[in-house]
From TrEMBL:
It comes from Streptomyces lonarensis. One of its GO terms (molecular function) is ligase activity. This is Phenylacetate--CoA ligase family protein. The keyword Ligase applies. Residues 117-310 form the AMP-dependent synthetase/ligase domain. Keywords: Ligase. It holds the Pfam family AMP-binding. The keyword Transmembrane helix does not apply.
Length: 451
């Protein structure tokens, strides 16, 4: 096409062909999803192992990191699992930053992202357009259970450098919802503005972290609104884990369903909710293992351990036995929704476990024990001082002299550890959490450092 100075524009693909390409990729991805869902549960693993061999060959051939890492390492034989392959860790990703893990040239990358870098040097993530569309259709299927035309939905999670917000945003758009992409903590739309807009636009759904759902609830109450009467049916929570007890309290405050979506920066979504609100693993795109986080031995179904994943269809960034650092348990029973995929429950991060008297306590199990005691509020803080577990609880509804001993007893019964439990006032908790990047992990040190 000639332009004003008489030169010729670069040779680019014409827009209609791009649209055709999108439609073809989308149709293929939806067909893949349907084909996977039609499998019997017994056929899932053989199907995955065949994909794993292809993925291993792709990684070994095309990703510089795996070319070195897998040099001389035999691949699994037909029907054999990934157990003999080496792990890939977050440190490997840091060392491979930015492009060593890529198995395609940068020209084939549709999206590039990075981790926040809050726990060390950043890591990169990359996807091709096919990778992206595959993820999009899964998310779209999941959100289609909850939202449709006429529903306003706020996306109040970070858009910067990650894929999740854009993925959810696109999926909502595709199912016909009205998307309000507020992001979170930005200069343009701080949380106070998001709260005001919720009061004005009365969304059917909010995508945010559980802690943010509480903060928005507080702000709306302070502004004189009854959040439960604003029409929010669903809070889709991402980015942070939460105990069932805390989720039940948040659901009660909003009078809304709380449904999970789970993923990592490196992989995008790993579990998406079904019509019953349970999180199903993306087993059509990943092979999952649940391992003891200390000695990396496999754990039986239903036991909480570290989630380790191998991608099965990733073009841009194949990952083999990637240790997510997330503690999960996979339900051995099928979900009543009828999906062939297993369901998963998140128990927090391996690195967030508390070590008391030779025992490792999972943060969410501890949260569940503490917050399920009647009269505890929405927040608690935990920390280890010397050999002792210390807990701080808010007691908005019952006297602390009744609540604290019950918390002590509940924790002692559950974990065989006798904690020191004291009350903390809500204002101190709020000041501490406002100063935290990840307020779901409130600890004693955060309370002491509260401004
Ligand atoms: Zn289900």
């Amino acid at each position: 096409m000639a332009i004003l100075d008489g030169t010729t524009a670069p040779d680019r693909e014409a827009p209609p062909a791009r649209r055709d390409r999108y439609c073809a990729l989308r149709d293929a991805a939806l067909a893949e999803l349907d084909a996977f869902e039609a499998l019997d549960r017994a056929a899932v693993r053989p199907w995955q192992l065949a994909r794993l061999r292809e993925q291993l060959a792709h990684a070994r051939r095309n990703a510089p990191f795996y070319r070195h890492r897998l040099d001389g390492v035999p691949g699994p034989a037909a029907g054999e699992g990934p157990e003999r392959l080496p792990f890939t860790t977050k440190d490997d990703l840091r060392r491979g930053y930015p492009l060593e893990l890529l198995a395609v040239p940068l020209t084939a990358v549709a999206r590039y992202g990075e981790s926040t870098g809050t726990t060390g040097a950043p890591t990169s993530s990359a996807i091709t357009y096919r990778d992206w569309v595959r993820g999009n259709v899964s998310t779209e299927r999941s959100l289609g259970h909850r939202f449709g035309p006429g529903d306003v939905v706020f996306v109040a999670i970070p858009y910067e450098l990650s894929f999740a917000a854009y993925d959810l945003d696109r999926a909502l758009e595709t199912v016909g919802a009205t998307v309000v992409g507020t992001g979170i903590l930005s200069a343009v739309c701080p949380v106070e503005r998001t709260a005001r807009m919720i009061a004005t636009l009365r969304p059917a759904g909010i995508v945010c972290s559980p802690t943010r759902a509480l903060r928005l609830h507080d702000l709306l109450r302070e502004a004189g609104h009854d959040p439960a009467s604003l029409g929010v049916r669903t809070v889709l929570y991402v980015g942070e884990t939460c105990s069932p007890a805390k989720l039940a309290k948040i659901a009660g405050l909003w009078q809304a369903d709380l449904v999970p979506a789970y993923g990592t920066t490196e992989t995008n979504s790993l579990a998406l909710s079904c019509a019953r609100g349970r999180a199903h693993l993306t087993e059509d795109r990943h092979l999952f293992e649940v391992l003891d986080p200390v000695d990396a031995t496999p754990l039986p179904p239903g036991h909480a351990g570290e989630l380790v994943l191998s991608t099965l269809r990733a073009e841009a960034m194949p990952l083999l036995r990637y240790r997510t650092g997330d503690l999960v348990s996979v339900d051995p029973e099928p979900c009543p929704c009828g999906s062939v995929r297993a369901t998963v429950r998140h128990h927090g991060r391996v690195g967030d476990r508390l070590h008391v008297a030779g025992r490792a306590l999972d943060r969410l199990d501890l949260e569940e024990a503490v917050l399920s005691v009647p009269g505890t509020g929405l927040h608690y803080a935990a920390g280890v001082v010397g050999e002792d577990l210390h807990l701080r609880v808010t007691c908005p509804d019952r006297p602390a002299r009744l609540v604290c001993p019950e918390v002590t007893e509940r924790v002692r019964t559950r974990f065989d550890v006798t904690p020191v439990v004291r009350e903390v006032d809500r204002a101190t908790v709020a000041r501490a959490m406002d100063a935290m990047l990840k307020p779901g992990n409130l600890g004693l040190a955060d309370l002491e450092a509260a401004p």
